[in-house]
Amino acid sequence: MKSNRRDFLKKTLYGGLALGVTGSYAESAQSVNGGTGANGVWAVDAGNRPRKGKSVMGLRCDPLSEVRVAVIGLGRGSGAVERLSQIEGTRIVALCDLRNERIKSCQERLKKSGRPEAVAYMGEEEWKKVCERDDVDLIYNATPWYLHVPVAVSAMKHGKHAVVEVPAALTLDDCWALVDTAEETQRHCMMLENCCYDFFELTTLNMARKGLFGEIYHGEGAYIHDLRSAKHNKNGYHKMWRLEHSKHHTGNPYPTHGLGPVAQIMGINRGDRFDYLTSMSTRQYGLTLYAENTFGKDSPEAKATYKLGDMNNTLIRTVNGHTLLVVHDTTSPRPYDRIHKISGTKGFAVKYPEEKIALDPHAHEFLKPEEFKALMAQYEHPLSKYIGEKAKAVGGHGGMDYIMDWRLIYCLRNGLPLDQDVYDAAAWSCITELSERSIENRSNSVDVPDFTRGEWQHAKPWPVIDMETVLY
Questions:
Q1: Distance separating alpha carbons of residues 220 and 259, to the nearest angstrom
Q2: Residue 268 in contact with residue 318, Cβ under 8 Å?
Q3: List of residues 6+ apart from 354 with CB closer than 8 A
């Protein structure tokens, strides 16, 4: 197992070292503590690391009358520029990317929205200068995976709040780096898990908080999205980083879209927490078959070794005895699916392939369409009720991206805790390394660290936001 672990750490570093990320983020991967414990459980640091600052559970910071934003990474970040430019109380101060055409396109979007031009930065290392600016409150980090932690940590160390695309980190040490830095600096660090703000997810969150499902003891989430062509597209992901990850890693590299909404509903890190997990993957078929059919059987793409199994199932057990199943598959020919399944003592909900709900005492069948429609209207989340129509008009994955950005700015302007905090970012993202660690140990269980260092026992599940009484 020690040799497997060394191989994992060595391969984890390929992105950071090959693409210019140096320093503590790469080096820290060498210091992950772990070993096979009783009953074959791979034990990890379960939360005994000394706290360098103080807890940021429920962190409130001084209200900002205007949120000055810098957007780094204008592939996905271009959509953020479009949305933020339509949210009151924001000013986009700086834009940073490797491609000049993306910067120009975003400048045009700002001009079209009646916004002033932002300061432009272009180059591999220019994000560092952006983080050093003294006229930025929020770094919006939409870079590739390998830059998530370096940019977020730098932002916080320079006094900025940081929001970061998913997953927030790829290794345990990088998860801890986010937590430690947020606690040291007392800055917000939120992962941009947009699926928590989709309409059905918000409604089922409201239903759960109001007890409709009873005690929720099991949930399921997934990221099932055919990305074979996108991974093999040389003009797509920068330096084809997503395909490179598939060559060197197995497990679940992208757990948070399905996991986040279910974890939030089940009160993870607020009254309960992840205890341990076990993970299993199929062998790899999809990337090789796609390469053979697209580039030819003798092509380098077809002959390459891809470590990522096509289908991964990771089962997590919580301290309170509840379970969550997280599924990942980006190489199978099948429709998009996040599952979003909630099982409780009084009822059941599922989103894909069709939104349905079943409730006791007639839970052997789903509600009829008219009953379902009435229930959805009755329990519509106040946030989507308040801003949902504009969100649909602005767009961004059907509107959930706009709801997420609007709510983020709302909280910063009002000095409120964010809906997701750094502990959520770490707990949801650490599944990436832990699932691979489990697979490489014949799917034996792996402990999940307590990133809150015990604070989960005193925190209450995130409440339903009352937008009628808490306004600007």
A1: 7
A2: yes
A3: none
Q: Which of 179, 188, 84 shows the shortest CA–CA distance to 417?
A: 188
Average pLDDT over residues 40-47: 52
**Calpha distance 317→277 (Å, rounded):** 6
Is the per-residue pLDDT at 85 higher than 60? Answer: yes
Distances (CA, A) of 119 to 91, 106, 371: 12, 11, 52
Per the CB < 8 A criterion, the answer to whether 173 and 28 are in contact is yes
Task: Write the pLDDT tens digit of every residue in 212-259.
Answer: 999 999 999 999 999 999 999 999 999 999 999 999 999 999 999 999
Token pair, residue 363, equals 């839970």
- 230 and 240 Cβ atoms separated by less than 8 Å: no
Count other C-beta atoms under 10 Å from residue 22's C-beta: 11
Cβ atoms of 26 and 9 within 8 Å: the answer is no
Q: Is the dihedral of CA 414, 121, 167, 437 positive or negative?
A: negative
Residue 6 CB-half CA count within 13 A: 3
SS3 397: helix
CA distance 393 to 401: 12
pLDDT at 9: 38
**Eight-class DSSP state of 449:** P
Instruction: End-to-end CA distance of the chain: give it in Å, rounded.
Output: 55
- Which position has the token pair 């005492």? 361
Nearest to 316 by CA among 427, 169, 189, 231: 427
Rounded CA gap, 438 and 434, in Å? 6
